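ok so I'm stuck.
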Amino acid sequence: MNEINLIGKTALITGGGTGIGFGIATSFVGAGAKVVITGRHEDVLREAVAKLGPSASYIVHDATKFSTIDGLFTQIEQTIAPVDILVNNAGRHLKKDALEITDEEYAHVLELNLNAVFAFSREFARHCVTNNRGGCILLISSMSAMVALDGIAAYASSKAGLTGLLLTLEADLSKHGIRINAVAPGFIESEMMLDIMKRFPEREKKVKARILLNRWGTPTDIGNAALYLCSDAASYVTGVILPIDGGMSHSF
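replied:
not stuck anymore, here's the structure
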């Protein structure tokens, strides 16, 4: 149990100001890590860091500006420390029937949820190799990559795409001492998720009936799982997608 800590580690969490990202940041800070969160809205990041405490800091950054990612890692190296853990959390959702989604909307979701994840993972790995140190990458997949859910074709495609990316990066990066795993959250309490349920009450009823543990998940549930996967306790674990969905993906 003493290995489930991040003392001496520096973690970068994209989209870490709210929701699951903030839950992971909270768990990481509690485990002794220095945490850098990013996002586009400085007021959100500032408020999050105030809650996280002195071990946390923020950098305003748009995850879709791929040409700036290398400089982001360099900035953290020069001002804090080389990044040991990358959490690719930034993402966007789209609730819309497949027949109504435009090509632009579909591409917009994949740009952040899949393309940016690759770009961040690549630049992180390059810095690990340059600095002659290993590292850990965590992807945020989804239960939607495992079961048939209506109205989320773009989102589910992006999350399913992470499976192929995870396995390929596992094959390419293991020789450099870089581990990569993923968590696959189910329905986790967040402003976005609760708003969707409020707008679609029949969907909420259907979803709740399938959650075997009979409750919504919380960002802390995800944070605790992320802590394990990114700690030395999981030093021989790579290429794993861990469902955190209250049993919903197994429910009949």
